[in-house]
Design a protein that fits this description.
CATH class of the largest domain: Alpha Beta
Largest sheet: 3 strands, antiparallel
Low-confidence stretches: 131-144
Order of helices and strands: HEEHEEEHHHH
Strand content: 15-25%
Distance between the termini: 49 Å
Number of helices: 6
Radius of gyration: 21 Å
Length: 204
């Protein structure tokens, strides 16, 4: 068997992910793009590491004024050899959640994005240039840019007797992508009451 360096193994793992032909299962219906779900990313990384004899660990370390995430990729046959990736991060301050839930969210998404960096997994939703931010030639030059026109409501009536199907569809999509209530305001108009409920529902 060829004696590969850990860098060669990581290169082969990245190649495995890029050529495996896995179809993105996530679908963002309000921005119309596909993406790898968190479960797919976890499985892609596991299979690539299994194929090359690698294993990774993750740690979230608190510094004096911030947090840093660390992913280390080890050569299973020679654990002294490893490659480390780091990313500055933070703990979100979200209403209706305790510190443990907030830390859990930070761990989940910091690890996910570090693995995407380490294994060179590209996703359409991270490419801001892929969105058409140009104005139509028929619009006035002084018109405000790209403000959402559609309201997102949790209930179908003021009586609040029936939850909106669209609300839960958007909420589930936001959860799978790690979007916050503030992120959803890029696509919908949201009043203060619904905004607070979205924050609570995203972190329940």
């Amino acid at each position: 068997m060829e004696n590969k360096t850990i860098y060669r193994k990581l290169h082969e793992a990245r190649k495995y992910i890029k050529t495996c032909g896995i179809e993105k299962k996530g679908k963002n219906t309000f921005s119309n793009y596909d993406y790898f779900t968190p479960e797919q990313i976890s499985m892609l990384v596991f299979e690539a590491c299994e194929d090359q004899g690698l294993i990774h660990t993750f740690n979230l370390i608190r510094n004096e004024s911030s947090y840093t995430g660390f992913v280390k990729i080890f050569d299973i046959d020679n654990p002294a050899n490893f490659i480390e990736f780091t990313m500055a991060t933070g703990i979100p301050e979200i209403k209706a959640t305790n510190i443990t839930q907030q830390l859990g969210g930070a761990v989940t998404y910091t690890e996910r994005y570090l693995l995407m960096t380490a294994f060179d997994i590209k996703d359409n939703n991270l490419d801001f240039d892929s969105k058409d931010n140009t104005k139509s030639a028929t619009k006035k030059n002084d018109e405000k840019t790209n403000e959402p026109e559609k309201w997102l409501n949790k209930y179908t009536s003021k009586a609040k007797d029936k939850a909106s199907e669209e609300y839960w569809k958007v909420l589930n999509g936001a959860k799978s992508k790690g979007l916050s209530a503030a992120d959803l305001r890029k696509y919908y108009k949201i009043n203060k009451e619904v905004f607070a409920e979205i924050e609570a529902d995203l972190n329940c």
